[in-house]
Amino acid sequence: MPLPTPHPITGLRSVAITVEDLPATRSFYRDLWALDLVTEERDRSYLGSGCPSNYVVKLRRSSAPGIELTTFDVRDRAGVDLLFERVAHGGAKIIREPGDRGDLGGGYSCLFFDCDGRPVELATEVEQRVHRPVERGESRPKSLSHAVFNTTDVDRSVSWYVEMLGFRISDWVGDFFCFLRTGSAHHIIGLVRSAHTSLNHVSFELNGIDEFMRGTGRMMRAGVQPLWGPGRHGAGDNTYAYFQEPSSGFVMEYTTALLQIDEEHGWTPKVWGTTPEENDQWGTANPWDELVLAKMTPATDPALWTPPSM
Ligand SMILES: [Fe+2]
Question: Which of 9, 174, 257, 289 is the most buried (most CB within 10 A)?
Answer without folding.
Answer: 9
